[in-house]
Amino acid sequence: MSQITPMMRQYLEIKADYPDAVLFFRLGDFYEMFLDDAVKASRILDITLTSRNKNSDGADVPLCGIPYHSAGPYITKLIEAGEKVAICEQVEDPKSAKGIVRREVVKVITPGLVVDGSSLSPKDNNYLLSIHNDDGNRWGLSYLDLSTGEFRLTELDSLDAVVAEIACVGPREILLPSFFRDNGKMKELARATAGLVVTHVEDWVYDHEYCRRLLAGHFAGASPSSLGCDGLVSGLYAVGAVLHYLQETQKGKAAHVTSIKAYTNAEHLLLDEATRRNLELTATLAEGKRKGSLLGLMDRTTTAMGGRKIKQWINYPLVTNRGITDRQDAVEALLQDAGSRAEIAALLNGVYDLERLNGRISLASAGAKDLVAMKDSLARIPAIKEVLVAFSSNLLAGLNEGLNPLPELIELIERGIVENPPFVLREGGIIADGYNAELDELRAISREGKGFIARLEAQEKKRTGISSLKIRYNKVFGYYIEVTRTNLDSIPADYIRKQTLANAERYITPELKEYEDKVLGAEDRIRDLEFSLFQEIREAAAGHGNLIARTADCLATVDVLVSLAELAHENNYCRPKVDDGTNLAIVDGRHPVIEALNQGERFVPNDTLLDNDENQIIVITGPNMAGKSTFMRQVALIVLMAHMGSFVPATEARIGMVDRIFTRVGASDNLARGQSTFMVEMMEAANILRNATPKSLVILDEIGRGTSTFDGVSIAWAVAEYLHDNGEHAAKTLFATHYHELTELSVTRRRIKNFNIAVKEWNEQIIFLRKIVPGGASHSYGIQVARLAGLPLEVIERAKEILVNLEKGEYAEEGIPRIAREKKATVPTSQLSLFQNTEDLLRKRLLSIDVATLTPLEALNLLDELKRMA
Fold first, then answer.
1. Annotated binding residues
2. Boundaries of each DNA mismatch repair proteins mutS family domain copy (predicted)?
3. Which of 595, 685, 784, 866 has the fewest CB atoms within 10 Å, measured from its CB?
4. What does the pLDDT read at residue 784?
5. pTM, full prediction
6. Are 607 and 774 in contact (CB under 8 A)?
């Protein structure tokens, strides 16, 4: 636009610096949006789009706006739509401004940097995650929750590990270097970043010296070594990008981000993306909801901090005996003392989200109600400490020591802030009476203006002896003392003439002038002074940020331990023995979530024994719906819970330390990436075979079902052999299958054992007994399960006829299977064998073999096939 107003010129200049954000441009009591921002925002926010001054071409300039004091819900809606919002405020008083009021962007709100409590899920973190890779094998990851101050850093050695970590962290926004676009990294990360807000950071930010300066600047001169980041080059770049982005968007230092925690994969039991999804750790597969997941069952916490902490424990189970034992000791102590457990839970129930309150205070976005919530929460800590002091558990004692009620901060807030302050800071009514003498006087003037004038008038009449003396007010002269001309001889020396009238003179005194200055601007001065005093209190609270953060973390941990003790009490869990051995022995294990759902039948517990000597691979057969998947998942969940330090759903459990849990479960595809169900299945299996170790636990729920029968059996057989024979990857494995041929592996492989889910047949019906028993199943009972599912009777009967034809290998004279020609009703005899056939087919098969090209594995499979055809 060639002809634009100074205000629009200012808008366009500021907007040019924030092209990817919706600019909230402050005009008086409104945030205005113009041009493309207005069109976009009006659609997302469902507000009226209008227009104002036309540009040089005569076209309208789109415009929409919202009241500044109620911007919160609108910002939330834009953030949820994946937009960024730049807040542009008036940074000088319009009354004193010469020309256009100066405006600046004071902060940028992005999906990964939300701090407003109404925009956040209380029990979920809101992470901004940064990724860096310099074309080497090391990937640096760093993530920050600005609302709580949690800041973490790690380095990983593969893209698969990066994808798994992204799935675990669950960020709202990801920072990537701009050069990722050119070198193909974006394509590699496409699956992990799908649906997330991705922000590309300029390449110059990834300079080693610049990142070191950012780190030192934020953490008071600390070096990468002192922060535990020494040697993490790619990780340092990831951290630098976060700090740079924080600096650019928040326009100030986030003082509550006081430390960064570097960690490695070796510190935790590893769970890849497929395992988290298949075990439904934090969300259900079907609906993606917390309810029905392991987290939904285990989270009995009463605080938002505790809710986030227990989710973190599920995502990052421990692999150190000391850490696990300390947690178990604490849970056991709380389990044995129901009274203290209930008392702590009741006290925690009144504790607000100290982590996020601390974050908002540090970022100067906290209101008066936040400070009162902080005070009320801290006030509960002495009572919590009094209960905890009775426990001898190392962990509980350490947590008690870390709790600091900060009495001086409680006293400051209690003395300075009213008990029930308003939401809006600029409207006054925040600071308590008696906190500040000037404010008390201003309030007295505001409340008692007429009384003050009356008292002053009486005082002056008495002092001068002029009974007709009047104190009056008008808009031109303000307050004045009016004396008739007949009394001019009695005027005191401190009276200052202000105006002469025909019959009177008007005067002011220093006292009246002082009062006038106060009373005329009393309301404005009250609001300004209250806000200033509030800021002082808020800054004082921010000075306690480190202690508040430590206290909040201790309270969250106490909350989780109480929650785990309550869970164990309600569900009769046992304390598992976790050691460095190789055995995994569970007596009467149950699936924690399914047991709690209480679906109308008593949950049948089952024993489990896995080791690396005799029972490394358990092949489990049995019909669908019998409980194979439930059994295998419950073993994995019990192992994970034990590594969390939780008690587990069993009568007894001994868990040898596990380094990773892998699952290959069910059928799924990824059509967006051109991957079929079978391709996804094979990719997941490949990941397991590459990364499993003898300390891993592998859950295989069907392998090879997505391709032809012969191919499927061959792949499943070879996978089982590989896990058995390859010492480097010989993981403890539960292998459920409908390929009954796999039960023959136990004949040639010493550490493979067969088990099946027991069923009972009655009147052509099957009854699921839900019990795992030794041996392989003799039937798949597919047709019986189909009957239970409600297939039409005609289909069931025809299926039985076809099954008999296939089992007996019945063919017509011309070699066409009888099932393609006619129905042949007979009585079923035995389970279908995939390799039965006629002598002619056996002969044809032998003639088709090229012995010279057979590999050992193919020869073994072929011999087994021919044996069955004979």
1. 622-629
2. 696-712
3. 866
4. 59
5. 0.82
6. no
